[in-house]
Structure formats: C-alpha cells, structure tokens
C-alpha cells in the first residue's frame, strides 16, 4: 500500500492542502521545445500519483504557465490541481490583463490562488484580487517574495492586510523566516508556501557528496531531498513546500517527504550542527 501524502489546513477556509507541491520556474519553461513536454507531463503525473496537488507558476517564468496549462488540459487533470500563479506588473489595468492572460494560458476560468509576485505594486493588485475573490474568479489571494531582504516588507504587509497565503524562502541553511514570518503567519492565520527549500540547489550539490546520517531512516528519509523537505515541514506554520523540478524521478523523491513522520523543530535542533548548517 502506497503511503498517502500528509495534508495541512488552509487557515482561512479549513480546506486541506497536500504538503508537497511543484514549482515551475525554469523546469517548465519549455514551450518552444515540444519534445520536452512529455517529461513535464510525467512530472505532473508523479505529483498527482503521490497525492499532491499544488502547481505554482508565474508570468515571470517564461512559458511555464502555457506548458502547465496545456499538459493539465491534455491529461484531464485540472480538477485535481490546486493552480497557483501570480501577477507581476504595475498598474490596475495591466494587472487585470496579465491575470486574464494567465487564465488563458493555464486554460482555466478559475485560479485557486493568485499571488502578488515579489510584492510588485501590491496595494493596487490586492484591491483587484479582493474583487475577483468576491466574484469567484479566484479562491485565495496572497503575496510572495524569495529573498531575506524582503522579509521586513512581507512582515508589514502580513500585519496590515487580510491574506489567505504568503510565499517566501526557507531552508535548512536559510532560517531567517523563523524569526518573524513563520510565527506571524501562524498568529494571523495565513497559509504558507515555501520556495527555495533546497537553498537554491547549492546545498544539495554539497550534501550529495556525503552519506545520509543514520537517523534519517528513523524519520523515513531515503534521500537528501527528503531530509531537507522534512526539515521545512518541521515548522507547523508551513502549509506546503514547492520545490521545482523537471525530473519525474525527483518529483517522486520529493513527494516522499510528505509521508511518514514529520518531526517538529525540537527533533532538528541537536542535529543541525551534525549537518554542518
């Protein structure tokens, strides 16, 4: 029997969301390479087979929205997908036009989560997103960023605005979000998507040169990917982590982190020094 992926609750609605998703930056930007599409379809199939649902994209990611939309339509998988994308422009009308184009590229009249990418003109876009949410065009709204330097501004927006989701960077080597953002998300009832869970990939390259610690098996980890993702999920405020990949094998591996034991921060504290982080 295949273990099913854990879910966590979206605080604003109480709906469950699988804890491992898929980021499409770079990996799905292959719209001008038709021969690459079947492999991306296999990535999506691996996500769904493991019980995942979140697919996160952006107009910033080249042809990723187009590729994801085509593959979801081709496979008939839209109904099982939690589609998240972003608005990344300035001005109300430009934002509306960009979001409508995203819907067309993703081949859906409804987006599960629309986010203001990197906080660009966030006041303008949040007003539009609230209108769209009331109209049923989107289910959830949020804001994103990917650098520690933006955490103070993210904190200010999270404190001042009613948000369903926030997305930011967090990893075993970049734990700044523990200071304010994760506690604030829990306090404010904001779901958290985590990007860059592998620290941009450099960490994985280093760790793969060494053996997994013996205790990794105690929490069901068979790879460094799974260990690093389980670390991110040790924070109860994290709702879903969205590592990017273009490899079906890596997607299956990543998804495995969402099963079995998910130990909390107390488990990890004495083990961080052993990992050299």
Tally the helices.
Answer: 11
Shape: globular
CATH third-tier fold name = TIM Barrel
Cα-atom Rg, whole angstroms?
A: 18 Å
Helix proportion range: 25-40%
Class by SSE composition: alpha/beta
Distance between the termini: 36 Å
Low-pLDDT segments, ≥5 res: none
Rounded mean pLDDT is 96
Number of strands: 10
How many domain regions? Answer: 1
CATH superfamily: NADP-dependent oxidoreductase domain
Q: How much of the residues is beta strand, in percent?
A: 15-25%
Task: Based on the coordinates given, report the CATH architecture.
Answer: Alpha-Beta Barrel
CATH class: Alpha Beta
The order of strands across the largest sheet is 3-4-5-6-7-8-9-10
**N-to-C SSE string, H for helix and E for strand:** EEEHEHEHEHEHEHEHHEHHH
Biggest sheet architecture:
8 strands, parallel
Description:
The protein has 277 residues and is an alpha/beta fold. The chain has a single domain (7-275), classed as TIM Barrel. It contains eleven helices and ten strands. It has an eight-stranded parallel sheet. Strands 1-2 form a two-stranded antiparallel ribbon. It is globular. The mean pLDDT is 96. It comes from Ramlibacter lithotrophicus. Residues 20-259 form the NADP-dependent oxidoreductase domain.
SSE layout and pairings?
Layout (H helix, E strand, L loop, with lengths): L6 E3 L6 E3 L3 E2 L13 H13 L4 E3 L7 H12 L6 E6 L4 H15 L4 E6 L5 H14 L2 E7 L6 H10 L4 E5 L11 H8 L2 E5 L6 H6 L16 H10 L6 E2 L6 H9 L8 H4 L3 H4 L2
Parallel strand pairs: 3-4, 4-5, 5-6, 6-7, 7-8, 8-9, 9-10
Antiparallel strand pairs: 1-2
